[in-house]
Amino acid sequence: MNGMELLEQRIRILVEKVQQERAFFDSLQQEVVALRAENAQLREQNKCLEENILLGNRSLEEMHQEKELTSFFADELIKTVDSIISESK
User: Fold this and answer.
1) Angle at CA 28, nearest 5°, toward 8 and 14?
2) Domain ranges, residue 16
3) How many independent structural domains does the chain possess?
4) 16-68 residue pLDDT tens
5) Is 19 exposed, middle or buried (0-12, 13-18, 19+ CB in 10 A)?
6) Is 57 buried (19+), middle (13-18) or exposed (0-12) by CB count in 10 A?
């Protein structure tokens, strides 16, 4: 093999490697696009879940307040009934 043939062979090898690297780079770019889309979708799902949790927490707080209020009124009713019973004796 003379010097020119050797040079041509090495250039072909380099061109093939560049093409392979370009194909790999393109596939990575496609993967990045797909991952960004998935990330956006997951962020939206996360946002919805956080909103649902906040709504659930508010509902629990309201139920707790209602329970306390009901307990207060039940205690007051018991006191009133006891007072009426005591007065009627």
Assistant:
1) 5
2) 1-63
3) 1
4) 999 999 999 999 999 999 999 999 999 999 999 999 999 888 888 899 999 99
5) exposed
6) exposed
